[in-house]
Every structure is written in structure tokens, then in C-alpha cells.
Design goal:
Number of domains: 1
Order of helices and strands: EEHEEEEEE
Distance between the termini: 47 Å
Strand content: over 45%
Number of strands: 8
Helix content: 10-25%
Number of helices: 1
Radius of gyration: 16 Å
Structural class: alpha+beta
Shape: globular
Length: 129
């Protein structure tokens, strides 16, 4: 049996078990991330993480599923860099691309201008301001 480490998850290479373990580990990781992001939104905590190879500093406003059924976070990026977009600005980021998520002790007070509850970019909302 061979063990692979991919994105800090361990996968065992055996016929049917690899698919099951991959999905179980992914769901466990997303479930934990779900709680962390919702707590950060509820407490208005600033998040830092790496996304597509770029450091990001964001104020999370909503977390849910996109119309393509991917977990996403609607946030206002206040710091870090971005490959294609200006900073600061609104972003809709896929959770599966977030690496090294840190909930900081820094808080934001108000919703940013332009935020609207019931985000139209999401088919399901887990939590929002």
C-alpha cells in the first residue's frame, strides 16, 4: 500500500478505498472550514490566507454554494495581492482554493458599501452578515 500526501490530506492507494477516503477527508476538511468561516463572519474577524498563490487579507461577508455548487466566500479584499483584480475590491472566492487560512484578532465594524444580503452569486447561503 502506498501513502500519498496531497494538500495536507493523506490518501491510501488501494482500489475502491481511495475514492471513499478522498471524499471523506475532503468533506471533513470542508466541514471544518465551514465552521471556521461562519464563526469569522459572525464575529466579523478579518481572515488571511493564500489563494491562487497570492496572499490575501479579507473581510468575509457571506459563505455558501455558488450556482455551480462549489463552496464560495463573498469577501472584501483589503490587503495582499491579486493576479487579475485590483485591491481593495469585492471577491467571490472558491473555498477549495484557500490555503493556510488564519482567523486574525483584527475585527471589522460595518458591512462594506456594495454588500447586499442574499448574495445573487450563491444558490445556497450557509451564513452571512
Amino acid at each position: 500500500m502506498t501513502i500519498f500526501i496531497i494538500s495536507k490530506l493523506v490518501y491510501l492507494s488501494s482500489h475502491r478505498a481511495i475514492r471513499y477516503l478522498t471524499h471523506q477527508n475532503l468533506y471533513a476538511k470542508l466541514s471544518m472550514m465551514n465552521q471556521v468561516i461562519c464563526d469569522a463572519i459572525r464575529n466579523r474577524c478579518v481572515l488571511t490566507f493564500t489563494y491562487d498563490g497570492h496572499p490575501r487579507v479579507v473581510e468575509p461577508h457571506a459563505y455558501g454554494l455558488s450556482r455551480a455548487r462549489r463552496e464560495v466566500i463573498r469577501c472584501y479584499q483589503t490587503g495582499g495581492t491579486s493576479r487579475y483584480h485590483k485591491v481593495p475590491d469585492w471577491k467571490l472566492m472558491r473555498v477549495d482554493r484557500i490555503k493556510s487560512l488564519i482567523v486574525t484578532k483584527e475585527h471589522f465594524v460595518d458591512e462594506r458599501i456594495g454588500y447586499m444580503r442574499g448574495d445573487k452569486g450563491m444558490s445556497t447561503i450557509f451564513c452571512e452578515l
